[in-house]
Amino acid sequence: MKDAFGIPQSLLVLGGTSEIALATARRLIARRTRTVWLAGRPSADLESAAAELRALGADVRTVAFDALDPDSHEVVLGKVFAEGDVDVVLLAFGILGDQAHDERDPAAAVRVARTNYTGAVSAGLVSARALQAQGHGSLVVLSSVAGERARRSNFIYGSSKAGLDAFAQGLGDALHGTGVHVMVVRPGFVRTRMTAGLDEPPLATTPEAVATAVELGLRRRSETVWVPGLLRVVMSALRHVPRGVFRRLPI
Amino acid sequence: MSAETETVSVTGWGRTAPSTARLIRPRTYEEAVAAVRDCGVRGGIPRGLGRAYGDAAQNAGGAVFDMTGLDRIHAIDADGGTVLCGAGVSLHSLMRVLLPLGWFVPVTPGTRYVTVGGAIGADIHGKNHHVCGSFARHVLSFELLTADGTIRTVAQDSPLFEATAGGMGLTGMILTATVRLQPVETSLMSVDTERAADLDDLMARLTATDHRYRYSVAWIDLLARGAATGRAVLTRGDHAPLDALPARTRRDPLAFRPSRLPSAPAAVPEGLLTRRTVGLFNELWYRRAPRARTGELQRLSAFFHPLDGVPHWNRVYGRAGFVQYQFVVGHGQEDALRRIVGRISERRCPSFLAVLKRFGAADPGWLSFPRPGWTLALDIPAGLPGLGAFLDELDEEVAAAGGRVYLAKDSRLRPDLLTAMYPRADDFRALRAELDPRGVFTSDLSRRLNL
């Protein structure tokens, strides 16, 4: 169960090698979290992530999960929920793709969309139903500011996050009053493997900062969390910039 | 006919950690048995008037049995001083009926709006614990509907009685109880008030003179710092005898007329309770108390239940809700108490109406909270940054001093500390495993603390 401050005792991470998710898991383990499920494609990275969290004192189990195989989600996630209550589901899988390459290779672009959007629709709905049956819990969805307004430089990724974001908001409304809480997290540029080598824009942040914001959001039962918080203001301004001007902005 | 059922979001009085359950309101024994039998795989938990601060009367995804439908007073022995009543009867109702007959409830907490079933389940205490013990000590027997669907009559001194007293509703559903009452001549209290300049002064006064009073409590200003750390107002007294009343009041000495102010508004602006506003309140509260006054006549409701005058006062904490932290440390652990009070005032938790009192002899309930020593209770807004980690540190201090926190108020204890704080927790788990192997009686609290 979550305590009065929204801190979970059990956590299911979808996308178990995500640096943001692991930073969040470390933070929650330092509080109350004792059971962690890391779901992802079986790999050495997944196992070493589990080992790292185990060293912090948590009971960590890995589970084979593939965002690109929605048909399997019901069975795979069903098994996790059958083991006991899951207080927080952190939906953290996603790929950036390579915009320049993917524009020339539609199949690669579709892979981004299928992972970030279609996979999340399936895993999100399966998790939501299980949370609803247990009458409590949070579904935390890692969206991105990139979904707030698509930019020339990464609109394939951005559009997939836009879809995910809209889906998660709607799901939150659907679950309002069921005891299940959906929180959409919109980080800006996060320094991770995924963004290594990219030019760093202003207001760049870290996985640890996102983890802190997730913990705070759980405490406040927030529906939307921006990281850093200032992005809420920046993006609401950017969203209203005329397209002709937006196109020419150096972002 | 079946009990009313609806699906609702449930929280404790602190309004943190909501979860959803089917609320079932049985009105008869048959409906109660059916409710327990049909509650489903996630079980059920009895709930009274929802005054437990945390998640003791929540059951996510399962059933919550609203016991307020079983609210009949079955029999009053006006000569012997006992009452047999349904578990859903509130102390408020009992007072209304019993006071005119010259009887008062044996133990009342800071609110009248708790049920008799809840009073046993949390084994509540009042300002008279140092003299009278906890509520269950005054319960002669109760009827308990257990997980197997049978109704057992449970008498004092039996293991099932002691597991149920303070057992947070996890041994079964109490249906009725027979409670021994306290005779009173009037419905007024004779109250002595004095101020203590700091914590040591307060503890010295309580130690030296507490035994002279049936009821005793100290309000303590936890925002005061430096030399004033732990300054307090002591209010102590007893039921006023008839001859203490002025002639006009003596004509109707047992009248029970609690006053009632408007409810707190449903939406309260965030950040109402800051260090500044609470500090100001505490300053005024301390200053308005007389330095020393004896024999003041007060209404029962003013003495015992000042907050009951403001329905839904818990809303003033806003959306984030609040936690109440109450712990006890034994006699001889005064240094631990001083350290904890020092840490709370240093940290400047905006807490008003923090209460310190001395407990008397321990109660037989396996999970009953009181033990001889000092107990401090304070409300803190749950939205305060870093509060969780801070209270965890206080828990460590309390556990190291051999103390414990109160489960009826808990919403955040680290599960592994429970057994350290309650040495009979394993006996409780063993009895539950035998009595209720499928875990029919389950709550968010029992899941969270692995009880």
UniProtKB/TrEMBL annotation, chain A:
SUPFAM superfamilies: NAD(P)-binding Rossmann-fold domains. Transmembrane segments: none annotated. It comes from the Bacteria. GO terms for molecular function: oxidoreductase activity. Its EC number is 1.1.1.333. It is an enzyme of class 1 (oxidoreductase). Keywords: Oxidoreductase. NCBIfam families: PRK07904.1. Belongs to the short-chain dehydrogenases/reductases (SDR) family. PANTHER family: 5-KETO-D-GLUCONATE 5-REDUCTASE, DECAPRENYLPHOSPHORYL-2-KETO-BETA-D-ERYTHRO-PENTOSE REDUCTASE. This is Decaprenylphospho-beta-D-erythro-pentofuranosid-2-ulose 2-reductase.
TrEMBL record, chain B:
GO terms for cellular component: membrane. Keywords: Oxidoreductase. The keyword Oxidoreductase applies. Residues 16-184 form the FAD-binding PCMH-type domain. InterPro entries: ALO_C, FAD-bd_PCMH, FAD-bd_PCMH-like_sf, FAD-bd_PCMH_sub2, FAD_lactone_oxidase-like, Oxid_FAD_bind_N, Vanillyl_alc_oxidase_C-sub2. It holds the Pfam family ALO. GO terms for molecular function: D-arabinono-1,4-lactone oxidase activity; FAD binding. This is Decaprenylphosphoryl-beta-D-ribose oxidase. It comes from Streptomyces antibioticus.
